[in-house]
Amino acid sequence: MTDTSRRPGTSAPDGTPPRRSMLNDAGVRAVLFQIIAMAIVIAIGWYLVGNTLHNLATRNIQTGFDYLSREAGFAIGESLIPYNATDTYARALWVGVVNTLKVSLIGIVFAMLIGVVIGVARLSSNWLLAKLATIYVETLRNIPVLLQLFFWYGLITEVLPAPRQALQPIEGVFLSNRGFKMPAPADHPAWWGALIALIVAILAVRFLLARARRIQAATGDRPKTLIPSLALLIGLPVAVWAVMGAPLALDMPELRGFNFQGGVSVSPEFAALTLGLTLYTAAFIAETVRSGIQAVGKGQWEAAAALGLKPGVTMRLIILPQALRVIVPPTTSQFLNLTKNSSLAVAIGYPDIVSVANTTLNQTGQAIENIALIMLAYLTVSLSISAFMNWYNKRIALVER
Fold first, then answer.
1. Which of these ranges, 57-66, 184-193, 217-226, 363-372, has the smallest mean pLDDT?
2. Residue 18 has what DSSP assignment?
3. What SS3 state is found at 296?
4. Phi and psi dihedrals of 260, rounded to 5?
5. Which residues are paired to 123 by β-bridges?
6. What is the pLDDT at residue 1?
7. Rg of the chain over all Cα atoms, to the nearest angstrom
8. Is pLDDT of 331 > 90?
9. How many CA atoms within 13 Å lie on the side-chain side of 83?
């Protein structure tokens, strides 16, 4: 009698291969485990959301975002866009977002400029310059940024005099504990025309530089671009301004009562926040720039010197372009840190998104919604900065041949 039974995984008497269970397939198991993990996460999230909504309903706490259409009823100290207390909570929160963007963008630009200068200075052959740059970096990096914000805010509000005794370093510029006042061009269409012309000039210069690079790659000779670029950047806006009437009137700040009226105003809160974030972040960027420059081989310096290039030209055209591939990724992180650190503005009274949302929360009692909006605002801004810097990083990446 023939025994037809066989152990699992062994071949049949006729030689056919054994049937394998789907669970023995690594790919199937990977997908199955991911489905199980996702189901667990969804179940936990469902429980937490349901439990939160139940607790809110039990305590008669209103949920949802309907409150955004109600009148805010509170004033905001400064805003780039029109706002008054009769506007909605949505408008107030948008003012906070715009104020956060203003501080972040200005801080990023100046932190990058200062960081590059300090980073290059740390590598200077001038002993005094290098030591001063080192002191700047080591001092500011090791003091918490919140303390630096308090320092700058206290310096402006406590050391500077009252408006009636304001310092006047330049005609029309006043420095007081109420902030900084400067002249501004009087409202006239010519100024807007000049601004549009400047934007057009910047685009034209970019095209000019790109054309010069293409000619250099094809022929080895680079056309001169400095004078044409300056002519576009200066001549075009001035020409448009002149054609549209060449207005020279300025809106000068004047002392009226206990403060100045007119001109451009920079509040103590904005000045302290911008100074603190900019100088603090610039110290970290300086170290990134220094390490990026040092990552470029010494042979590049030697080759440039052999060609008779000056150190400044070598740094600008040879060293920095190669160092950027090392500098850009960590600098992106510093830009994000500056943006997120702007949430400390609430400590010195600057009306950013966190400050405005906190006021909204105190009036409406809807903490979850307001915190969610704060998180969404910072997430959107941070992802936008990351996307732009990743695009720029890919654009400047060295292409292997």
1. 57-66
2. P
3. coil
4. -90, 145
5. none
6. 46
7. 30
8. yes
9. 25
Six-digit token pair at 17?
Answer: 């291969």
**Residue in the structure block whose two tokens are 């720029």:** 392
Burial of 39 (0-12, 13-18, 19+ CB in 10 A): exposed
* Poorest-pLDDT segment among 63-77, 249-263, 316-330: 249-263
Burial label for 130, CB within 10 Å (0-12, 13-18, 19+), is middle
CA distance 17 to 10: 8
Three-class SS state of 83: coil
Cα separation, 280 vs 152, in Å, equals: 12
Q: In the chain, what percentage of residues exceed pLDDT 70?
A: 92
Structure tokens at 134: 């080192």
Listed range (53-67, 283-297, 378-392) with the worst mean pLDDT = 53-67
Query: 393, 328 in Cβ contact below 8 A?
Result: yes
Pairwise CA distance, residues 24 & 330, whole Å: 43
Q: How far is CA 254 from CA 186, 263, 264, 267, in A?
A: 14, 8, 11, 16
Q: Is 293 in contact with 120 (CB distance < 8 Å)?
A: yes
